From TrEMBL:
InterPro entries: Hepadnavirus_pol/RT, RNaseH-like_sf, RNaseH_sf. It comes from Streblomastix strix. GO terms for molecular function: nucleic acid binding. This is Putative Transposon Tf2-6 polyprotein. Gene3D superfamilies: Ribonuclease H-like superfamily/Ribonuclease H. It comes from the Eukaryota. Signal peptide: none annotated.
Length: 312
């Protein structure tokens, strides 16, 4: 016997000994998870009755980035299941539809068949499903219909984009606010004369934005997505008022925090219509933030938390 087969045999023996009963009746899916993978990362969405209820995304490490596309497509499904595990459990989901634009991944998971290089990932998918106590119905979704998950997997996390100047002016006018400094921008995408950057460039007031003093300012903040939690923490610590540009992404910790903070918001529109992609974003075949974009007004000044609804 090939020694490499022993772990798999032991796994099957353990499964038989556990004797966990399985649901034989196929339950109609209660939610739908859509996933996609790209060389730089992965993305996943969770929907219920065509309404987006959660979004998840991440990047690959150096080792993962070198794996085959089939391997990473299956890993994207695993990451999606793990990211949405709490939501699935809290919603008492028993059956989940999974959609992937990789036909090989769909076939392998459905049939429990895969090459040696993929069998570990296939096993992880089924172990995760078993741990969640759910059924799955996995289907192939053509790439042209997988727009949001595709954009998440190719998401530009460096912030190489900006709000269109016209939208910026309209937002300030409608909110009756005049921001004093543009944070997390560079000389090619700043919307205000005074701006701070995360790296050294040309004309910035300061670099290393998160370590600067934001007091005595009304900052316009359009940060890279990974920095949003740190931005909210900074606003709370410095007890200031700030205008934050961020996508409507349910399920993200920073989004939940914004909603729970009694923050007022102004819908700006779909990202494709209001954002301008930068040169490097286009060259690297990265994507803009999918979905709708909002301007959130967060006021943590002492005694001002309850005044937001009277502002606009």
């Amino acid at each position: 016997m090939n020694k490499t087969a022993i772990p798999d045999i032991n796994w099957w023996i353990a499964k038989l000994r556990a004797n966990i009963p399985a649901q034989l009746i196929q339950i109609p899916p209660q939610m739908t998870m859509t996933t996609d993978a790209a060389p730089s990362g992965w993305g996943s969405t969770l929907e219920k009755e065509l309404e987006m209820i959660a979004i998840a995304h991440g990047t690959w490490n150096k080792r993962q980035a070198k794996l085959s596309s089939n391997n990473n497509e299956i890993k994207a499904i695993i990451q999606g299941l793990r990211s949405f595990a709490k939501t699935l459990k809290n919603s008492l989901v028993q059956s989940l539809a999974i959609r992937s634009d990789n036909s090989t991944a769909v076939f392998d998971i459905r049939k429990w068949r895969a090459s040696t290089s993929l069998i570990k990932e296939i096993k992880q998918v089924h172990q995760t499903i078993e741990k969640l106590g759910i059924q799955i119905q996995i289907t192939h979704l053509p790439g042209v219909r997988n727009e949001i998950a595709d954009a998440l997997s190719r998401l530009s996390r460096a912030g190489d984009y900006k709000l269109k100047q016209k939208i910026f002016r309209q937002t300030c006018l409608q909110m009756n606010l005049n921001p004093t400094i543009d944070l997390f921008s560079q000389h090619f995408n700043n919307l205000l004369p005074r701006f701070m950057s995360t790296i050294r460039g040309h004309g910035e007031t300061a670099i290393d934005t998160l370590n600067q003093n934001w007091k005595m300012e009304l900052p316009w903040i359009h940060p890279p997505i990974p920095l949003l939690p740190a931005v909210l923490k900074k606003i709370r610590e410095e007890q200031i008022e700030a205008m934050i540009i961020a996508p409507l992404w349910p399920g993200q910790t920073w989004y939940t925090e914004l909603v729970n903070e009694n923050v007022q918001s102004l819908m700006l529109g779909w990202s494709k219509e209001i954002l301008e992609p930068g040169t490097s974003l286009i060259k690297k075949n990265m994507k803009l933030l999918p979905g709708k974009i909002c301007c959130f007004l967060m006021d943590r000044r002492p005694g001002r938390e309850g005044d937001l609804r009277e502002r606009f």
